[in-house]
Every structure is written in structure tokens, then in C-alpha cells.
Amino acid sequence: MKKIYFALGLFFCFYNCFKKNVELTYPDSPYIEPKYDTTPVDSFSPGATSAEVARRIRMSSQNYQDSLKKALEKEAELKRQKALEEKLKKEVEKSIKMDEKPVDTSPEKQPKLSVD
User: Fold this and answer.
1) What's the rounded Cα separation, in Å, for the pair 110 and 105?
2) Which pLDDT belongs to residue 13?
3) What pLDDT sits at residue 113?
4) What is the reported pLDDT for 16?
5) DSSP 24-92
6) How far apart are alpha carbons 80 and 111 in whole angstroms?
7) How far apart are the first and last CA of the chain?
8) Do 47 and 41 contact (CB within 8 A), yes or no?
9) Which of 59, 53, 31, 57 is nearest to 41 (CA)?
């Protein structure tokens, strides 16, 4: 039984080795040039990134930095506004306290309640 399996295995191996390779070609279809550069470039060699890609990186980085500056400026403006609001609240409270007459709570000035 082992000999039959061995013989069948050899037969399939030799059959596949002598099989003709059929190349699939499509003569009617035109060749379309890829839209990207297919030249391999070592990532550490000069010219690894094209000038256009480097420019885009710098632009996006500059845009990112600008957006960070705007966010920081907005945050600083909010802090200034809050500080002004707090200052105004304190001034209003201070002016209210100055306008109010102090209430004397000494026992001599309090009216006496009679229990009749």
C-alpha cells in the first residue's frame, strides 16, 4: 500500500514538472502606465522622499503649528476674559458692600420683645 502511494506521488511530481507553462496574455488590452513611481529607493539614501512630498510635509507641519498657535491664543484670551469677569465681580461686590449701611447687632439697640 505504501508503494502505491509512493508511486502516485512520484507520478504527480513528474507530471507537474513536465507540464507546459501557459502564459496568460491579453493581446487586445492596452498597457496602462501606473500613476505612481515604481522605482525602489532606499529610505536612507538622498532623494528618498520627493521634493513634492517634502513640501507637503512642511506645509502640513506649518498648518499644524499655526493651528496650535491659534488654539493657544484662544485659550489665553479666554483666561483674560475670565480674569476680567472675576475682577468686575469683586468690584461690584465691593461697591454693593459700600452702599449698604452696616447693621448694628448690639443687644442695646435691639428692640425688646414683651410677653404680655
Assistant:
1) 7
2) 81
3) 61
4) 75
5) ---TTSPP---SS------TTSTTSS-HHHHHHHHHHHHHHHHHHHHHHHHHHHHHHHHHHHHHHHHHH
6) 50
7) 128
8) yes
9) 53
Torsion, Cα 70 71 72 78, to 10 degrees, reads: 110
* Cβ count near 73 (within 10 Å): 10
The residue count for the chain: 116
The mean pLDDT values, 10 residues at a time, for the chain of 116 residues are: 88 76 69 73 63 75 83 94 94 83 58 59
Give every CB contact of residue 87 below 8 A, 6+ residues apart in sequence: none
Between CA 68 and CA 60 the distance in angstroms is 12
Per residue in 48-76, pLDDT tens?
667 777 777 777 777 778 888 999 999 99
Nearest 10 degrees: Cα torsion 103, 104, 109, 113: 60
